[in-house]
Amino acid sequence: MFQDPYPLFPVFAFLGFVLALVPLPWHLQAWNSGTCAYMLWVSLSCLVQFVNSVVWHGNVNNPAPVWCDISTKFLIGASVGIPASGLCITRRLYKISRVSTVSVTRQDKRRAVLIDLCICVGIPVLVMVLHYIVQGHRFDILEDVGCYPSIYNTLPAYFCVFMWPVLLGCVSFVYSALTLVAFYKRRLQFNELMSSQSCLSTSRYLRLMLLASLDMLCTIPVGIYSMYIANVGVPLEPYISWANVHWGFSYVGLIPSIEWASDPPFRTSVELTRYLFPASSFLFFALFGFAGEARKNYLTIFLKVSSLFGYKPKPASSAGVYRANKATPGALSSVGSLPVYVPRPATNEKRHLESLELSVAESDYDIEKSYSPLPSPSSLPAYDNEPSLRYAIPQAV
């Protein structure tokens, strides 16, 4: 009998749901619509798989048919929405790599967001609608897996459902290749171009490029393999009529784990399909969850949460305020000022010589004071044993 490593997959699915949403706030601020769509598709898919794996662990009951109707349609759309979001990312990177100067208005940003939404949301919704053409019955329930979409293996199914991830992956492949060529040709101007982008740094651009490249390299082979493995041993049926395909549409297949796991190709297809969503989430978090802006946001969140429990971090000491008699060479050189020489403590003989020099200097000052046209100061600064500084210490800005 098939032994599901419970709760391994629910843990992975829940972590994928959380981790994919962590970088969402600062990508929303940067108007990265394709990246945000990628995060939402992956995160919500992990949430659906988490619920399914918990509710249907060890049973094939049908307590929530409406949930299965919605979740199966959503998973069909997510299988297209993730590569569509990858296409939006590569398309944006290609546009950035082709322009010589970046001057983007708010209207241009809105237009770009609308185009991205048409690709990463419009196409998946279209595929959800087209899926109904080849939906043989309502849905299936697999033990330990949950709600699973039903697709009638006929020729129109490849055009309505199966081909879209591969097609979008091929278009992303072309965009990624063109972006790499443009990046290589203009690598000397790249840093200057990125400096003019207020919402896209060089580091973020390269991480997006790596994400798009990995998505490009994985989508095509995985899509082809999934299409093949899901239909191994299943005959290709002719599409006779709408009534023939949808006859007995209200049927719900209840399949225990011992039955679906005993078919190696189908088991591989099921496990590959559901583990791809957490894997996509972990990949995205590995690229963007440890970046500089991510660590900065983590610190901000930590300080806000810790303040609720009464923790207040010590304020950083001001680096720009120094006292002349307490300044050290290391502290002054660290802010870019001239190093200050601090002599060693004088011996008794040196102190005797310094006192003689001071008395001579004071007598000279009294003589010059009588001939000075400027008014004399009211009092001289008090002398202490520490040597006085001859130069004013510049204050750090």
UniProtKB/TrEMBL annotation:
<dbReference type="InterPro" id="IPR000481">
    <property type="entry name" value="GPCR_Pheromne_B_alpha_rcpt"/>
</dbReference>
<keyword id="KW-0675">Receptor</keyword>
<dbReference type="GO" id="GO:0004934">
    <property type="term" value="F:mating-type alpha-factor pheromone receptor activity"/>
</dbReference>
<keyword id="KW-0807">Transducer</keyword>
<feature type="transmembrane region" description="Helical">
    <location>
        <begin position="275"/>
        <end position="294"/>
    </location>
</feature>
<dbReference type="InterPro" id="IPR001499">
    <property type="entry name" value="GPCR_STE3"/>
</dbReference>
<feature type="transmembrane region" description="Helical">
    <location>
        <begin position="70"/>
        <end position="90"/>
    </location>
</feature>
<keyword id="KW-0472">Membrane</keyword>
<keyword id="KW-1133">Transmembrane helix</keyword>
<protein>
    <recommendedName>
        <fullName>Pheromone receptor</fullName>
    </recommendedName>
</protein>
<feature type="transmembrane region" description="Helical">
    <location>
        <begin position="111"/>
        <end position="134"/>
    </location>
</feature>
<feature type="transmembrane region" description="Helical">
    <location>
        <begin position="205"/>
        <end position="228"/>
    </location>
</feature>
<comment type="similarity">
    <text>Belongs to the G-protein coupled receptor 4 family.</text>
</comment>
<keyword id="KW-0589">Pheromone response</keyword>
<dbReference type="GO" id="GO:0005886">
    <property type="term" value="C:plasma membrane"/>
</dbReference>
<feature type="transmembrane region" description="Helical">
    <location>
        <begin position="162"/>
        <end position="184"/>
    </location>
</feature>
<feature type="transmembrane region" description="Helical">
    <location>
        <begin position="6"/>
        <end position="26"/>
    </location>
</feature>
<dbReference type="GO" id="GO:0000750">
    <property type="term" value="P:pheromone-dependent signal transduction involved in conjugation with cellular fusion"/>
</dbReference>
<keyword id="KW-0812">Transmembrane</keyword>
<dbReference type="Pfam" id="PF02076">
    <property type="entry name" value="STE3"/>
</dbReference>
<feature type="transmembrane region" description="Helical">
    <location>
        <begin position="38"/>
        <end position="58"/>
    </location>
</feature>
<keyword id="KW-0297">G-protein coupled receptor</keyword>
